[in-house]
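README: folding subset

This subset contains proteins for which both the sequence and a predicted structure token string are available. Records are stored as plain text. Below is the entry for Purine-cytosine permease (468 residues), shown exactly as it appears on disk.
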Amino acid sequence: MEKTTSPKEGTVSGEFERQPIPSSHHKSWKKFLGMYAGEHAAGTEFVIGPLFLTAGVSAFDLIVGLLLGNFLAVLTWRYVTTPLATAERLTLYYKLEKIAGKKLVTGYNLANGLLFCFLAGAMITVSATAVGIPFDMPMPALTDTVPNSLSWVLVVLTVGAVISIVAARGYDTVAKFSNWAAPFMIAVFLIAGIVAANRLGVDSWSSLWAVWGEGSEPFPGQIKFTFWHVLFFAWFCNAAMHLGMSDLSVLRYADKNSVGWTTAAGMYVGHFMAWISACLMFALYLKSPEAAAIFTSGGIPPVAPGPLAYEVVGIAGLICVVIAGWTTANPTIYRAGLAFQAIFPRSSTVKVTLVTGGIATIAGLFPAFAMKLLDFVAVYGFILAPVGAVIFFEHYFADKMGFGKDYAINKGLTFNWAVLAAWLISMAVFYSISVYFGIFLSFFTLPAWIACGLLFLVFSKRLQSQKK
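--- output ---
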């Protein structure tokens, strides 16, 4: 029999961490629409948009690739993640613990927490590019990997400290700040995109083509992006959330599966409108005398969100960049803190979150995390997505394969080797192929996910047949 958790234990914090969400707490689509729109129109958008241009992508490849790639992401949330969330109504962490065992979930939490810290660090970098403008701070170059000035270090440390303190105040403070800021950020992205397009002389598809054309050669150190790069990046940049099942923790509150469609608000407000707006801002900067002088001297123009937004919409742009980085880093540090809290349950949540913020701030000192955000996000999704395949394949195929579900908790195991072996083998094989042949990692996220699920079925069948 499965070990059960008492209602008191499961609701100790009111979040039902270790029991299914009761029907009285189910929420309609209205509760999710604004959340997804705000979460995906944030700090990362200011960096990812310009990075598409540094990859030499054409206007057609970017726009059509984003339209289709984001649609595939929405379909994945709707038909892969949400049905599992409403069927189980458990957090990713507890569901994974039931299958994989507590010790293995501890390792997952460590990987998850560290990746969250690096992402939060990139967002601290984003906010710092705006805060540093009044101090005439040298902006990090696209190729910078380490701090380039003392002023950069001081600004990042200050921004990181403020963000960490807010995150340590708990989820309510983080959520209130994000909800207040979301409409402002979306409005600034839209206005900035329109202003940049007007200043570029774009008023039709043909004029956009004249400005953007068929793309260009990628900047030094960048790979050339095609339609397929854009499509797969847009689909899998959030692979940890949908294929990786991280959003089980959110969508378990959904009253019906159709709630999964609300993710379109995030994809098409953030990962379409905001990315293209940021692209247009960078395209405008590339036509400036400053950028021309940098190109002439053999340098590479910086991709610094603060100066880009300030040039287009002034002080409102600076404020938006600061808030955008803040609203992404805050919940990311909070989530990383929760992951580390699970590893060190006796430690104070506030202390763990502050230490987590310190790690993120140190990461923010190194511009490489932001300047290589396309690559980092691809790696992030690739590492965490296969874990979701374990949950998906078990849910739909365990009975057909003739082995039991939730094996670890039913057998009192703390470590299910079938899960670890499937995860590591699938990642190692496809990551090696990507590196050896120099192929963009997002192309292998889905194959690694499928391979992990199939290997898990084979290993679980073998493991459980040996134990009988």
